[in-house]
Specification:
This protein is mostly helical. The protein has 2 domains: 56 residues; 154 residues, no CATH class. Helices cover 71% and strands 2% of the residues. A two-stranded antiparallel sheet has the order 1-2.
């Protein structure tokens, strides 16, 4: 009897130990889950904070760009000073009288340096960030550009400075998706990666025609003649 009693006590103790071990395991499991949830929550908080810091800086840069563009001015040798978009149109017209963008830039960088410098800094800021959906913020920035500005930037990125500094970014982020086609643009179209034009069906169709044409002949199609 004493032996059976001893065995029963040992069995009960073993059962209790197993139950305690299982309870400890469940407690540790619960603790790990809680830690994982806390870690995920902290990651989300950090991501939200990082996005908030990015957006605060981005919109300040955007406001500064718009302000400087509105105050942008060019004084021709004859005539009145032009401001903002009219100044950009004036410079765009001057560019078309030069043989190359670099030649134009050598004479007018004092007028355009700050303008294009700000464009570069904003694109670079977006590109270097760790945020998701960078294209969304590029789209917000791109929406500030009128037709003539996009054309001017198109030529600038083919010059030595623009090509080296941020042609890659305008291609990667489809910056010319809303550019308007004309003959002057058509002559330079193939100097860009097709991605630069996003879903612009008119440009994409002309781009592919030009590409196919260039593979068979050096002749420039009639629809690409400079205006």
């Amino acid at each position: 009897m004493a032996l059976l009693y001893t065995i029963k006590i040992q069995t009960d103790e073993l059962k209790l130990s197993r139950e305690e071990l299982e309870a400890t395991r469940e407690e540790l499991k619960g603790s790990r889950i809680a830690q994982q949830e806390q870690s995920e929550s902290l990651k989300l908080q950090n991501k939200a904070t990082e996005l908030q810091i990015f957006e605060n800086t981005f919109f300040k840069l955007l406001d500064l760009f718009i302000e400087n563009k509105n105050n942008f001015s060019v004084k021709p040798s004859i005539g009145k000073t032009s401001y903002s978009l009219e100044a950009i149109k004036l410079l765009l017209g001057w560019y078309k009288s030069y043989n190359s963008y670099d030649e134009f830039n050598n004479n007018h960088e004092k007028n355009t340096g700050v303008y294009f410098g700000q464009i570069y800094k904003i694109l670079k800021f977006i590109d270097n960030s760790n945020i998701e959906n960078k294209q969304r913020y590029v789209g917000i920035f791109r929406a500030q550009f009128m037709k003539d500005e996009l054309e001017f930037l198109f030529y600038h990125c083919l010059g030595s400075i623009g090509k080296r500094r941020f042609k890659k970014q305008v291609e990667e982020y489809e910056f010319f998706e809303h550019i308007s086609f004309n003959g002057n643009i058509g002559k330079e179209l193939l100097k860009y990666n097709i991605k630069a034009f996003g879903k612009n069906e008119i440009i994409l169709e002309i781009y592919n025609k030009l590409k196919n044409k260039s593979q068979n002949t050096k002749e420039i199609p009639a629809f690409v003649k400079a205006e």
